[in-house]
Write a structure and sequence with these properties.
Blueprint (H helix, E strand, L loop, with lengths): L1 H12 L4 H15 L7 E8 L5 E8 L5 E3 L5 E3 L13
Antiparallel strand pairs: 1-2, 3-4
Helix pairs in contact: 1-2
């Protein structure tokens, strides 16, 4: 999990979108040739000038995340994807 955390943090700090970041992490796990698999959800938040924000979410084998909206409602973010480290992209 240390490799995953640091890889994702570095990629996202460089401006990589969540889907590409998970794809690159998957490649790194596959190159290790170890039998290690993991689930992940990556979400970025981009504030907008009007006070709203754009969330971009990508998931790999993890249960769908929930979003708490400003009006108090909760909604499920429908995402999908295979566990990381299982198959090549």
């Amino acid at each position: 999990t240390g490799l995953a955390r640091h890889t994702l943090r570095t990629l996202l700090e460089q401006g990589t979108d969540p889907g590409t970041a998970l794809s690159r992490l998957n490649r790194a796990l596959r190159q290790e040739r170890a039998s290690r698999f993991l689930t992940a959800v990556v979400t970025t938040l981009a504030p907008r000038a009007d006070g709203t924000a754009l969330l971009t979410t990508c998931s790999a084998g993890h249960p769908s995340p929930l979003v708490l909206r400003s009006d108090g409602t909760v909604s499920e973010v429908l995402t999908g994807g295979l566990l990381l480290g299982v198959l090549d992209d």
